[in-house]
Amino acid sequence: MSRTVITGGLVVTAADEIHADVLVEDGRVAALAAHGSDAAAGWRAGAATLDATGKYVIPGGVDVHTHMELPFGGTFASDTFETGTRAAAWGGTTTIVDFAVQKQGQALREGLDAWHAKADAQCAVDYGFHMILSDVNEHTLKEMDGLVEEGVTSFKMFMAYPGVFYSDDGRILRAMQRAAGNGGLIMMHAENGIAIDVLVEQALQAGRTDPRHHGEVRKVLLEAEATHRAIQLARVAGSPLYVVHVSAEEAVAELAQARDAGLPVFGETCPQYLFLSTDNLAEPDFEGAKYVCSTPLRPREHQAALWRGLRTDDLQVVSTDHCPFCFTDQKELGRGDFSRIPNGLPGVENRMDLLHQAVLDGHLTRRRWIDIACATPARMFGLYPRKGTIAPGSDADIVIYDPEARQTLSAATHHMNVDYSAYEGKEITGRVETVLSRGETVLAGREFTGRTGHGQYVPRGTCQFL
Ligand SMILES: NC(=O)NCCC(=O)O
Ligand SMILES: [Zn+2]
Ligand SMILES: [Zn+2]
């Protein structure tokens, strides 16, 4: 039996902060006991010891929105499952849930098989899948039931990207009705893509081709309208709803109103909307392309509403929407036409640190940091308490976090396979020091000790908030 004791740290979970040693046995958390207690002293014989004195001992991060190798705009997201999950480990994230893609005309099964082929035996940390539904028909609807049974319990749909991932309201309603019956959770990209495409065409015709126009045509009102519509469709279907990458204050207001009415409606935002803004999209010399994602970055004034939503639980999760494209040869595809810039930002390595900085900046409490980054995403997507907490029986996915270390985020030092950092030069207090994934050390004092293929596929249960 393998035994490790993590000594001397402050264990922070979504529920508690306790000065405790943690006993790990055979990849699971076996027990917690007060520092210096007889129980903790008794664990040490024959066990490896990790000293966490002066550090936090936190659950590994759970990032429920990543896109490794996503095909988009004629290219592919630049992180593979191998490079992306290694970067996740460096950043203290020990579980990702990525989006398998059903292409138009494909069965869900084909899309899911393709994602397993990309990910299996490649990952450094554990992984699960959502399914992107882009072709809703009788066959697909039946397939949804089987997927829920086997642990793919959430389905992303798009009100944006006509001709690619887009579904009309009828298809969305049908999928929601099916989810209402089978326990699945519909995740919505809520932007009115049909209206946005009109504005894109008009902007390009008028010669407004720079990256900043990506933000201007993807209007706040069109995010709020789509969020409202998605909520009403879910109500009609009697299904829960999870709105992804919420960026606009007005969209948060729609979620808040629905939640105040007692509806099972949930929302996620991402670090880019909390820390970046349209100022970045307006950077000269095409540098703004680095910040093109959808929903788009918003004027800085929206950030206060997102932070408030996270505090008041109108938003429940912060995930990354990690979808990296290199600046030099991929974002470049949209020079002279912002609509051809591949959409997405890198971030899987940065989330835990940025949110720790948010604790220091007074936006969140320490426990809320762990709640929105670990516990609630795990609960939302049927992984709790195996993931997202440190409790007897949980997987020993544990991070020793140094809350006082200083670091500067940079492409020169990050591990994501992308040639820029969206947070270049940002100073952060706090850094991941050591990471265990199911009890195995994958990062030891800032040295990568993990391995390709350690990460296991995790079938998931249904949403645990229903
Ligand atoms: N968000 C983004 O810009 N790219 C990834 C695809 C999506 O999540 O819509
Ligand atoms: Zn999306
Ligand atoms: Zn996404």
UniProtKB/TrEMBL annotation:
The keyword Cytoplasm does not apply. It holds the Pfam family Amidohydro_1. Residues 56-441 form the Amidohydrolase-related domain. Keywords: Hydrolase, Metal-binding. Its cofactor is Zn(2+). CDD domains: D-HYD. The keyword Metal-binding applies. InterPro entries: Amidohydro-rel, Hydantoinase/dihydroPyrase, Metal-dep_hydrolase_composite, Metal_Hydrolase, Metallo-dep_Hydrolases_sf. PANTHER family: COLLAPSIN RESPONSE MEDIATOR PROTEIN, HYDRANTOINASE/DIHYDROPYRIMIDINASE FAMILY MEMBER. Belongs to the metallo-dependent hydrolases superfamily. Hydantoinase/dihydropyrimidinase family. This is Dihydropyrimidinase. The lineage of its organism: Bacteria, Bacillati, Actinomycetota, Actinomycetes, Kitasatosporales. The gene is hydA.
